[in-house]
Amino acid sequence: MSETEQPAAGTQTPAAAAPPAQPAPAPAAKKRRLKPWHWGAIVILSLLFGFWGLWRVFVPAAGDPRARLREQQAQIETLQQQVATLTRSDQISRDANRDLQGTLAERDEEISGLRADVAFYERFVGATGQRRGLTVHELQLQPQSDVAWHFTATLTQNLNRGAVSSGNVALSVEGTREGKLQRLGWADLRQQPNAPGVAYSFKYFQQVEGDIVLPPGFKPLRVSVRLDPQGGSAVEQSFPWTEAAAEAAATERSATGT
Fold this sequence. Notes:
By secondary structure, the protein is α+β, with helices and mostly antiparallel strands. The protein has 2 domains: 63 residues; 122 residues, Sandwich (Immunoglobulin-like). It is built from 4 helices and 8 strands, in the order ααββββαββββα. Strands 3, 4, 5, 7 and 8 form a 5-stranded antiparallel β-sheet that branches. Strands 1-2-6 form a 3-stranded antiparallel β-sheet. A hairpin with a 5-residue loop joins strand 7 and strand 8.
């Protein structure tokens, strides 16, 4: 049959192919709900994981540099505390030793003073003490101002034991003023005409005290002490001014412990 031939009448033309059938949708999956014990397990696991993280942070593994650093820092602080304690202890020991040395020096000075006193008293009551008449054992001069001075004269006698020696003490000073030698008498030193001497009366010894005043510009060189007893001849003794002033300074240091 030719291409132009039409199908014969009465013949059925095959029907067009039907489109393929779509697969039926699968039934929707059912949504699963967690049971209560599932939530408990999740919470427990979360806590365990949190504890594990904290342990890793605060308890590093062996050999962790941070742990070594903290350990070394603690050791350094301990050593610093020990050094501070030892330094303080050493300072306390040094202070105590210095105080002890000062106390020993004071005791040595006291012992020396007591020995001097014993020797002084033995001169009067000792069987071997040398007998001497009225004399000036010591003279001390203490400055009160630029021109005023306080004197202390120690008078002794053991020639007539038990006998009372009485009289007056007067001082005179030799020195320079405006380049010239000058001698100041008792009246000049007391700034009072016909000034009476300082009275004394004792059996073995006595300290006599008084004040004198030097004129401005006067440089003292030597001081003389004159004793006028009620019976017997006058006694006069001289002392270098610097020596008498040094004696007073030494006595004051000994008394104050400096």
